[in-house]
TrEMBL record:
Protein name, entry field: Trehalose-6-phosphate synthase
Signal peptide: none
Organism phylogeny: Bacteria, Bacillati, Actinomycetota, Actinomycetes, Propionibacteriales
Organism per entry: Nocardioides caricicola
Pfam family membership, one: Glyco_transf_20
InterPro entries, A to Z: Glyco_trans_20
Family, similarity comment: Belongs to the glycosyltransferase 20 family.
Amino acid sequence: MANSGSADLVIVANRLPVDRVTNPDGSSGWRRSPGGLVTAVEPVMRANDGIWIGWPGTDEDVEPFHDQGMDLVPIALSELEIEEFYEGFANATLWPLYHDVVAKPEFHREWWDAYVRVNRRFAEQAAKCAAEGATVWVHDYQLQLVPQMLRELRPDLRIGFFLHIPFPPAELFQQLPWRRQLLEGLLGADLVGFQLPGAAQNFVRLVRQRVGHKTHRDLVYLPDGRTVRAAAFPISIDAEGFETLARSEEVEKRATEIRDALGNPSKVFLGVDRLDYTKGIYARLRAFAELIADGELDVEDAVFVQVATPSREEVEQYRILRDEIDRLVGRINGDLGRIGRPAISYLHSSYPREEMAALYRCADVMVVTPYRDGMNLVAKEYVACRFDNRGALVLSEFAGAAEELRQAWLVNPYDINGMKSALLEAGRAEDKDVVRRMKAMRKQVMENDVAAWADSFLAELAAVRPDHGKTVRPVKQL
Ligand code: ADP
Ligand code: G6P
């Protein structure tokens, strides 16, 4: 093909795995990008000599570069595109709409126009980089039009799409003025992957109702003779990598240091989230504070460590949330803490993986209570780090991970009393019960890691059109 590139595997995601940052001295550097998408997709890239196309988190033009064994092709977004495409359509329209309308989605036509323009730029860049017959794997809600745009430019490609966040029920999706365009955008892929089977079913039903294509089970038949498959591929983590890290002496030592610094309480509760209104941070901290106020827990003996990395700070809902949580933590510590014993240890920092593993090792109760979450990798990371079979997981029924981690203490995050009971039960559970639950969850996480996820997606993608395209190397083989 005259204008094809050289990569046999192209990952297209809104973010590159590294984010451009300005250091305090004014110089520029790179930092690992936030969120579960990067955690999951990075190991796939390392196993293949592909390239990753994405936004470097800035409006500066950055040349393609090589970072830790990965070829990265940056796409700059202008200030206006950051505002209208990223903060606007992606994070103030689609994000709340796809997460059960936990916050009210905003619909603006100029945001949609920016979404179309930016998606086209990503598609054009992918078309330039992909070799003939290559596999292009497009990721997440920011880029739902890319599959169709790319297919028009390069019909020779094998195109997969994976949605990392929930896909909403038809009743909510229908609110979107551009619902048909988004469905058609996704149908440019050969395989559309979701976290849960229910999401794939929602999608196929919507395609039948709104676009009018014939469907049968998980297949959509297009008028041009192409078949698109929609199926669930629950995402995971590099479970062995986390376990190895957790077993290291340094992490063990650091976990002890953290516990000492907290004053050696008998129970450490832990929450780790991006500061996002879908994560249920406010309600979980209230539940914990009420347990102290009720006398069920004592600040001399129990502490809640909440790590909350600021996220999407220019979006109003996120700013409001940050202020609300800052105020709540101040009030709880002011009312219930004692000198040297805050009820909540609240941190905005972003940590390296070693520090995360040490935190997981030191947490007796891990609290993951989103109102809605595609999967939630933090829950799986906690399980992978608990090779000692200790540690209790309190997990929202509304996180995708709850489908696999059935032995967690499952809670409804809207039910504060239910959460209080679960926190207490998990904190007071007998060793035997904790070990039994953790063993079962560990089996699930260790056997279904991110390599298995990527390999099953790529194998299915190859199977949709077996006669077409090159094969991508399985991640497991490495
Ligand atoms: P989301 O993708 O919505 O942020 P996930 O729980 O699926 O939620 O993924 C979050 C990822 O970000 C995990 O891999 C977790 O380890 C990482 N992470 C979360 N908070 C921090 C932090 N403060 N420092 C470093 N990594 C973090
Ligand atoms: C979630 C989304 C990702 C996103 C990440 C971080 O994991 O599924 O697509 O990259 O959050 O959010 P941000 O807006 O900072 O990229």
